[in-house]
Specification:
This protein has 6 helices and no strands. By secondary structure, it is mainly α. The protein starts with 6 loop residues before the first helix and ends in a 29-residue tail after the last helix.
Length: about 180
């Protein structure tokens, strides 16, 4: 039987996977490959943000020392959701496509750095607070499996933002692709 990851190990594994996908995008040259990588990146990020927002962040609320980290994390997720929505409604021929992927990558790197900061990041604070990371890891893994099955084939739901208001985001098939 495979060893179960605690919540932090699982979330860090997600971070490494997305970092690898961004690196692959940077070296991709043909448009179908770029489009496929963007769909994979967006799917991974949507799943990851959902499990953090539904499970991990609520568990940390009231437990960690610097709760403003949670507010910042929600805003960072919302910023990423805006770019994800833009990317999924466009394609490699769209103006600013590569730039949006690059900015999304930079935003995610910043977010990851804050969550993983040794001693002071969200993950370190959750561990220091005694959050039951094994139990939370099981919850995250179960929800992640559900979401991956639900999002199979790139059918991502419209993003919900907590900190952005006055607009409507939609996910969809890229422009010029069959619905």
């Amino acid at each position: 039987m495979a060893q179960k990851l605690d919540a932090i190990a699982m979330l860090k594994a997600d971070h490494r996977k997305v970092e690898d996908l961004f690196e692959k995008f940077e070296s991709a040259r043909d448009k179908p490959r770029k489009k496929a990588l963007v769909l994979e990146i967006c799917t991974e990020l949507c799943v990851h943000a959902t499990i953090e927002e539904e499970i991990f962040y609520p568990v940390c609320k009231g437990e960690i020392k610097e709760e403003e980290l949670l507010d910042e994390a929600y805003v960072e997720h919302d910023s990423a959701k805006v770019l994800i929505s833009e990317l999924l409604r466009s394609g490699p021929d769209s103006e600013f496509y590569d730039a949006k992927v690059k900015v999304l990558s930079e935003m995610i790197k910043h977010h990851v750095k804050e969550e993983e900061a040794p001693g002071k990041g969200l993950f370190a604070q959750a561990r220091a607070a005694g959050v039951d990371l094994a139990a939370v890891g099981e919850q995250l893994a179960g929800r992640k499996a559900e979401l991956l099955a639900e999002f199979n084939g790139g059918d991502l739901p419209p993003p919900e933002t907590r900190s952005f208001t006055g607009h409507e985001l939609v996910q969809g098939h890229p422009v010029g692709s069959p619905a």
